[in-house]
Each structure stands twice: as structure tokens, then as C-alpha cells.
Amino acid sequence: MASEIMVFSQNDERIIFWITWIFLITQYPQKAMDKYLLKLNISRDYVMYGYIIFMLLFGVVLWRLFRIRRFFVMKNVLIGLQGFFLFHLFLFAAWLGTLLLFHTLFPRSLPHWISSALGIALFYLATFLGGCWIGHKNKRLTFLWCVIGVITLYYKITLGLASFQARDMSFVIASLIVCMAGAVVGKRYLKIQPVQ
Asked: Keywords on this record (predicted)?
């Protein structure tokens, strides 16, 4: 039996859910809504506050449903994908922080090839760690959730699939391979620590 190398608490699920949910709330589709609000002559502030309140309440209801055993599978899928995106978000922030720190400490910017190499390395590290989390949370249909995670991430980065080209396929395939490698590690080596 494979030895377990990392331990997660069930409390991590709640933290991951709410961090990602609050980040989702901040992605208010302002441009898409403005053209409709102008036609209806409705204040943007009222709609935005209503959106925030609705999403917070919906998050509370959704989390309470996920605590019911029959919804555990759905919870694991969502938490797995949320963790996948959080790894990318945090390591992207680390990349930006490194560039900012270097620019602050030294009179010139970090050479382009170094910043690019660092960004690519952190991206694939985040993809691997995110795959670990997906595999840890989902023992079935892991490949499907990895595909959904990678495609959604690509969509978010490029802001659409309309510009998809053949050269982008190598990026998607490489990301999927790294994600699946992480998922295998996550299935075999990660475990949940019960809440005391």
C-alpha cells in the first residue's frame, strides 16, 4: 500500500469553497449587465448589491446542501475544481509578487526570458498541484474533471475559444498530462484527516 505523504483536514474544504466563492462574486459581469441596465433605466448599484447578497445566500445554501451525505459526490467535484483554480491563482500572485519585488529592489526589470521561464514553471507547478487535489477529491471520472479544469482554465486565460489554434493544442495537451500526473499522485498519496 502506498504511503501517504500529505494530510488535509476537512476544514480545508470549507476554506477552499468560500475563498473561491468570494472570488467568483468579485467577477461581477459589469460590461454585460450595463447595456441591459441602461435600457431598463435601473441603477447599477442596486443590481450589484443585489447580486452580492444573492450570491452570498446561495453560497450558504449550497454549502449546507454539500454537508448532506447524498451530495458528497457533487461537493467533491466542485471542491476539487475550486482547489485546482486556487493553486493557479496563488502561484500567479506569487509570480507577480516576484516581478514586483525584483523591480522594487533593483533599478531594472527582470529579464524577459527569466520572467517567462518563471511564469511557465509556476503555471505547470500549479497545474500539477491542482491535479493532485482533483485526484485526491475524486476517485472516479478523474480524467473528465482534469479535462474540464484544463479547458476552463484555458478559456479563462484566453478569454474565449474562438481564437483557438493548432499551436494551442500542444499547450492544452501538456497541461492535461501534467494535471493527470498530479491526479495519480493525489489518488495514491493524499489523505483526509477527520475533524476532531
From this structure: Membrane, Transmembrane, Transmembrane helix
DSSP per-residue codes, the chain? -PPP-EEEETHHHHHHHHHHHHHHHH---HHHHHHHHHHHT--HHHHHHHHHHHHHHHHHHHHHHHTSGGGHHHHHHHHHHHHHHHHHHHHHHHHHHHHHHHHHHSSSPPPHHHHHHHHHHHHHHHHHHHHHHHHHH-SSSHHHHHHHHHHHHHHHHHT-STT--HHHHHHHHHHHHHHHHHHHHHHHHEEEEPP-
In a domain, 1, yes or no: no
Look at the chain and report how many structural domains it folds into.
Answer: 1
Give the pTM.
0.65
The closest of 172, 130, 181, 119 to 150, measured between CA atoms, is 172
Query: Which structural domain, as residue segments, surrounds residue 163?
Result: 6-193
C-alpha cell at 23: 472570488
